[in-house]
Amino acid sequence: MPLLGGKDEIREYQERYKYFYIILVIFLSVISLRLWYLQIYKGTQFKLYAEQNRIWQEKDRAPRGMIFDRNGKLLVDNRLSFDIIIRPQYLLDKENTIQKLSSMLEISEKNIKLELAKAKSKNLPLFYPVVISEDVDRDKVALVESNKLFMQGVDVLTRNKRTYLYGESMAHVIGYIGEVSRDEIRNHNSEYVKYDKKLFMGDYIGKFGLENVWDKELRGKDGAQYVVVDANGRRRNSEENEALFGNLPISDYVPGNNLVLTIDSDLQEVAYRHFHEEGKKGAVIALDPNNGEVLVMLSSPSFDPTVLSKGISSIMMSEMKNNPYRPFYNKTIQDHYSPGSTFKPLVALAALEEGLIDPGFQTTCRGSLRFGRRKYHCHSKWGHGTIDLRKGIVRSCDIVFYKLGMKLGVDKIYDYSVKLGLSSPTGINLPNETTGLMPNSEWKYNRFGERWIPGENLAVAIGQSYTLVTPIQLANMYAGIATKKIFKPILVKKIEKYDGTEIGKIDPEMIHEIDIKDQNRDFIMKALWGVVNEREGTAWWYRYKGLDMAGKTGTVQLFRIASDKIYQKCEEMDERMRHHGWFVGLAPYKHPQIVVAVIAEHSCHGSSGAAPIVRDIIKAYYDKYGFPSPKKDSQG
Amino acid sequence: MKVIAGLYDKVLKYDYSITVMSILIVIIGAINLYSATHTSTVAGTAGLFKHQVIFLILGALLMVVFTFIDYRKLERFAYLVYAFNVLLLILVLVFGQESSGSKRWLSLGFTRIQPSEMMKLSVLWALARYFNNDRNIGGYSLKELFVPFMIALLPALLVIIEPDLGTGLIILLIAFSLFMFIKIKASSLIIIAVVGVISLPLVYSFVLKDYQKRRVLTFIDPSEDPRGAGYNSLQSRIAVGSGQLVGKGFMRGTQTQLNFLPEHHTDFIFSVLAEEHGFLGCSVLVILYSLLFFTGIRVSSKARDKLGAILAMGCVFILFWHVLINIGMVIGIMPIVGVTLPFMSYGGSSVIVNFILIGFLQNIAIRRFMF
Lengths: 636, 371
Description:
The structure holds two protein chains of two kinds. By secondary structure, chain A is an alpha+beta fold. Chain A is built from 24 helices and 23 strands. In chain A, strands 2, 3, 4, 5, 10, 18 and 19 form a seven-stranded mixed beta sheet that branches. Chain A has a five-stranded antiparallel beta sheet with strand order 12-11-23-22-21, sandwiched between helices. The longest helix of chain A has 35 residues, at 7-41. Chain A is elongated. By secondary structure, chain B is mainly α. Chain B has two domains: 1-68 and 209-371, no CATH class; 75-206. In chain B, strands 1-2-3 form a three-stranded antiparallel beta sheet, with helices on one face. The longest helix of chain B is centred in the C-terminal third of the chain and has 33 residues, at 269-301. Chain B is globular, with a radius of gyration of 21 Å. Classes of the chains: A alpha+beta, B mainly alpha. The interface between A and B is large, with 61 and 65 residues.
């Protein structure tokens, strides 16, 4: 190949270079001219700006979306609050100003200096406001405003304060907000760059509960404006600024979207009052079994989200974190308990479905049963006498279920637990839901390397042994028995724009249908009705006359008790040793519209400790919505 | 022996202006980057200077390597390297590491690379090989440019969807500049211009991501987005303007040191120089760049063969567009696109690519002969 195409081509190449020299010269001249314009012609003015940095952008914070309950009652609001701030750049007469401010705000000078030092260590630009006092009352604000001229660098900023109208009652559902951390900024911005809502230092985001899960919807888009100030930090607008920068840009904020929850605040209050007034610990979950909507979700003890959103001291925080009753846990989904006797309907259903017994099954209870080398006790010391399956549920006789446990074996029980949604999270859209635990022989072998012992079948059948369920799983299990469907529980019904127009709707999501015979289901439901409505029923004393409710009690021993102390009175024990009480209620019993599960920790009994709470919630539901007259259909 | 003697001869005869000018720019760049990163006020900038020095040394070594491997021997790898690089771009889209919203990096375990930076070189080589083997007198028509256009368009699109609009545009600009250099028929040029003007709004509405649109809008009207691009643009103009004639002095630029200006060690590095060394400092840098470009064009005009001529021009184009777009952006005459300033901005991949470009220019210069 010739080195260069042809002589003609070479010559042509040589001629075109001059054009590229010319283009180069033109572009470089443009750059030089522009540099001359900025640095020489306008240089002095720009230098002034740089020295005092008299131009900054100020955020117009967008209010976060509001949160409503299912009937449109306001649960979370934004209220105007005032912060007193200092911009260190303009703090010329430091000692004097701090002294004045300290007497006005009744904060010690030391604390003000501490805040300033903290801000300095963060290396923020000097014009960034340092918050000295948050949420200051109006009298003090007026005092500071009127003295601002004599305290250079001090200013009052308004802010939307997140206010949780139901406080502790809904703290675990709604959660709280807090100032964004560096890590959160990094994580969010890598995903949010595609959206408008980028995060900056000092922004607030949802940290817990729905505030956290729905942060993207709730958080608005902040607006911004450029502010030009004089050397003392006072704002001004002059034509000189326009000459340099053109019109100073402004963008308006867009408020966040509102959430409408499935929660009914009235029912929630009924639950909260019980726990609060009686100082109880535990959790309440109420669901609509026909669509999985959560009506009540309460965990106790609780915390005040309004206070937490403002930011609390690390001492208070660690105190709360170390509280043995775990106020930061949403016990409805994050804590699991042994189900105790509330597990029995599942065992009865399994035995019926498997055809191991017929509904007329009968046995005799003498208070205890010998199996292998051990003696298994019934909770009734003297025994229930001759007793059938239905009465076994109504009176919660352990002997009946020991027998069923022997017939079924753990693996059959396990299969029915899976059908009824135990041993997997319900899938509710909240973080950190626990799975609970449903043992079977394979699990035990993998976990401990030991074979399943037949005696353990007895313990499993009365809800003891390794079995652990969360309150929401248990409520979902009863909903499953009643409707033969397992739904994914939901907390949010719809999303609205700030002006109230609907922009999103969350539809119920059925996870699976349960394949059980209607007659068996009806048998169980009738027995559950008997628990409340028959004189022998374990919850008879806690019923409301005329309230069409079914349910099941459960009591969970926390520690293995020596056989001579089995029948010791629970109330005489140390509080942290006392039994947990369970109650799950459904109403109306033929076509339940509400399922309520309550765990009352250390309340000794499911009947006295938990049943009244369930009853009152269902009563409140009945008073508010009523129960339709029973439909006459094939299921009835 | 003969080869070494020949090489020695070439080294003696070689005109050192390219080397000298690029080394001067590298020195200015290093000093300036030190000033931009020595304060630890921005999280994570503390170790950046050391990092950059390592890459400068590595880059200089690569420059030497690519000076002495005869560029004509590299021609046969052009398409292979091109294909490999396109493959890397696809891998980036699938497995790439994300950083502030765009996937640009491939992790190699010990370090991470940015295949889009290398792509500029690969496209240049692929086009150079294509045109070198294609005789044409009187200028290319549109039809004849279809294949070379596709060579540039494919990687450019892959880069743009990362999204890295700046590098994608640079790739297209390089290709277009080379087309101009190898000569397009006048009629075809007019058609390209018309189609370009018509397609701009289409590209704007269908190709650009939201934040990129916002940057374009901000350039046209800064009030469109005061939070993001508008802020950078205003603050960088303050920084540049406040430098005045001689600047505020080394490490004494207030805009830089107080962090008013985001990204001042990468895309906005020029504002640091402008603020601290003023109009004089800027002029020195601009003149050095200009001399580098002029010498580069001269290398092309005196190249021994067509391949060398095209390649040398391509190297100049790559450097030129980076300088023009980056400085233009900082001084507010161009929209904000993420493009680095050669030898000045922080960034390993970009340093290495720039050194290799200088290596190619020297390579062609050594092997030239006078007509």
